[in-house]
Design brief:
The complex is a heterodimer of chains A (about 280) and B (about 350). Chain A has about 280 residues and is of the alpha/beta class. In chain A, about 25% of the residues lie in helices and about 30% in strands. Chain A contains eight helices and 15 strands. In chain A, the strands form three sheets. Chain A has a seven-stranded mixed β-sheet with strand order 10-9-8-7-11-12-15, sandwiched between helices. In chain A, β3 and β4 form a beta hairpin. The longest helix of chain A is centred in the C-terminal third of the chain and has 14 residues. Chain A is globular, with a radius of gyration of 18 Å. In chain B, α7 packs across α10. Chain B has about 350 residues and is an alpha+beta fold. In chain B, β8 and β9 form a beta hairpin. In chain B, about 45% of the residues are buried. An eight-stranded mixed β-sheet of chain B has the order 3-2-6-7-8-9-1-10. In chain B, strands 5-4-12-11 form a four-stranded antiparallel β-sheet, with no helix packed on it. The chains are: A alpha/beta (about 280), B alpha+beta (about 350). Chains A and B meet through β4 and β13 of A and β4, β11, β12 and α10 of B.
């Protein structure tokens, strides 16, 4: 948390690496300027942050890095609005503000010993990547890991440089698919929910963790249910417009639930209790 | 509860003495214009009589625009300077019971929900509220329908009741007692107390409860024609929220000035379409129907679920200010009556 005074003061951080993931998405690696914060900063996979470009504003991003890899944090930004456009203009060595970590997280302790099925689509892979890399760094804590990841085209897949590490990790399977292939794509073509149905991971001792565009989530949930996953065995993370991140600005509520404080991670069972406004 | 008496002719003298130790905020008229809560000038001239001021003293606790920090520089050489919390001791005079009660609802959000907002907390702790019992409810008022009263004391340190040439002053807190440690205050008799009671009852009698707000909370439905019926004429101007003493939502924005700039927060409202629209375009509340449902449900259902008390004190400003006559009392009556 911030040193100085109030809830809305970010810590300064320097962007020390920018990776172009796709034509419209970049991943930024940020290192806190203050050495003590750099050393003490800790978080859980699934938590989020408010990133500011001074003079443009703040926007909300999940922490895409894993806390097992200390010294820096990462976030991926698709170019969609004022702040993300400004972020895309930044070069290495420039300063941003970061307020973090906020919100709840993937229940990594409760999930120890379980098999995990990650189902991600597009930029929705960002929070899953945090937890996935966390699990791979503590490989013995978790059972079999299936990773389903899809995007519209091969050029829309993020984190491609990590695919080999994911695929080659012990007892781990990577299932990539794209809606539309291209000349160089020799992999699967089709939507994520269909691939999940085809591979049919067993729900026995398993938890599915999903994040992606609403349309993907909408069609993935019934597939998981048909495979025998209960609502408690499906975990997702919600995206909502936020400003403060700390339960004051009144923007991210779904009924009396505040996504910034009570979420962003929910089980499907919890989501079914909420008004359908997300 | 003890009480004292303040002669009306002594009010400016008391206000001037308060000014020696406090910043005093009170209803002040602007010529022919509206009466608003403003810092008092040194002459101690106060407009305590008349209808409730145009705006609630909410802006004292959550300013319409509040700087959060300044920033300077670029590249690696960026520095930021957070704004310090303002802690100057303040007395707000002439607070209507509905507005004082509303401050306790702001407390729920800004002092509660995990972490306190220290900027708000500093102002709140340094501020005393001196209320004035409402003698003449305005046409939009409905405090008695939401568990309040024209002489309610919730959130107040003192409550003044107009007895003609003098005020009956109910002392409601230790801090309030200290404010009355002044030679202008005399002792109140049983007859004064009875007269104050009579005034309170007369004001309440002018405002019979229109609905049972607690019953409404249990009847708020997600899918109901009542939302669209009222929302279809909404202009999304946000007047209801900005004048509301409990609406607290804000936006955070940066403003650039030369080499640096300022980050500030400013009032915002769930009635604006952009409020929940995400960067990539998805908006969970795409039309005014969802936005009206949010505003009403938030006040009468969600906050009850969260804090056990509703986020409306019946001040009636939203009713009176709405340019298209959306009347939240009608919305609530229809919900209560099962009219959907």
């Amino acid at each position: 948390m911030s040193e100085a005074g109030h809830l809305y003061v970010p810590n300064l951080a320097v962007i020390d690496r920018v990776v172009e993931e796709t034509w419209d998405t970049k991943t930024f690696r940020a290192v806190f300027t203050d050495e003590r914060i750099r050393k003490d900063f800790n978080y859980h996979p699934g938590q989020f942050q408010e990133v500011s470009v001074f003079g443009v504003g703040e926007a909300t991003f999940c922490l895409a890095s894993s806390p097992t890899r200390a010294g820096f944090i990462e976030f991926s930004a698709k170019k969609v609005g004022a702040v993300t456009i400004a972020l895309h203009e930044l070069s290495e060595g420039e300063t941003v503000g970061i307020r973090a970590p906020y919100g709840n997280w993937f229940p990594h302790e409760e999930l120890r010993g379980k098999h995990l099925v990650f189902v991600g689509g597009g930029i929705g892979m960002a929070p899953l990547r945090s937890f996935l890399n966390f699990c791979l760094d503590r490989r013995n804590d978790y059972g079999h890991i299936d990773i389903f990841y899809g995007a519209r085209t091969p050029g829309d897949l993020c984190y491609t440089r990590e695919f080999d590490a994911w695929r080659n990790a012990p007892d781990t399977s990577l299932y990539l698919t794209v809606d539309r292939g291209d000349d160089r794509w020799s992999g699967k073509v089709g939507v994520v929910p269909a691939y999940v149905r085809e591979v049919a991971p067993s729900p026995e001792g398993t938890v599915a963790i999903t994040c992606g565009p609403p349309i993907m989530i909408k069609f993935t949930l019934p597939e998981l249910t048909k495979l025998g996953f209960t609502d408690e065995q499906i975990i997702t993370t919600l995206e909502m417009k936020m400003k403060c991140g700390v339960g004051k600005c009144g923007r991210c509520n779904i009924g009396s639930t505040y996504v910034c404080l009570d979420g962003p991670v929910f089980t499907y069972a919890q989501l079914r209790q909420l008004p359908p406004e997300f | 509860m003890s009480a004292v008496i303040l002669r009306k002719s002594d009010l400016p003298a008391w206000a001037r003495r308060l000014l020696a130790s406090y910043r005093v905020v009170a209803p002040v008229g602007e010529g022919e214009g509206p009466v608003r809560y403003q810092p008092l000038a040194s002459d101690g001239a106060v407009v305590l009589d008349g209808l409730r001021p145009l705006r609630a003293p909410k802006e004292h606790f959550i300013p319409q625009v509040e700087p959060l920090l300044t920033f300077q520089g670029s590249g690696k050489a960026v520095t930021i300077e957070p704004m310090a919390a303002m802690e100057s001791a303040t007395v707000i005079l002439g607070v209507r019971p509905c507005d004082a009660r509303a401050v306790t609802r702001l407390d729920d959000v800004f002092l509660g929900r995990k972490e306190a907002d220290s900027l708000y907390e500093a102002r709140r702790k340094a501020t005393l509220l001196v209320g004035l019992a409402c003698a003449t409810p305005s046409w939009g008022c409905f405090c008695t329908s939401v568990g309040g009263s024209p002489a309610g004391t919730e959130g107040l340190d003192l409550l003044l009741t107009d007895l003609g040439d003098r005020y009956h002053v109910a002392v409601l807190s230790g801090a309030g007692r200290e404010l009355t440690a002044d030679p202008v205050f005399g002792s109140a008799t049983d007859a004064d107390a009875a007269a104050a009671e009579e005034r309170h009852a007369a004001a309440a009698a002018r405002m019979p409860a229109l609905f049972d707000a607690e019953a409404v909370a249990g009847k708020v439905e997600w899918e109901a024609p009542v939302w669209m019926r009222h929302a279809r004429r909404c202009l999304a101007c946000g007047a209801c929220s900005f004048l509301c003493p409990t609406c607290h939502c804000f936006d955070i924005q940066d403003e650039v000035t030369g080499e640096g700039g300022v980050r500030f927060r400013c009032w915002d409202t769930c009635q604006f379409g952009e409020f929940t629209r995400m960067g990539a375009g998805h908006n969970p509340r795409p039309t005014q129907t969802e936005r009206l449902r949010q505003r009403v449900s938030h006040k009468f259902k969600y906050l009850v679920e969260e804090f056990g008390r509703m986020g409306c004190t019946g001040c009636g400003r939203c009713v009176e200010a709405c340019p298209v006559n959306i009347d939240i009392r009608s919305v609530l009556r229809e919900i209560e009556g099962g009219e959907r």
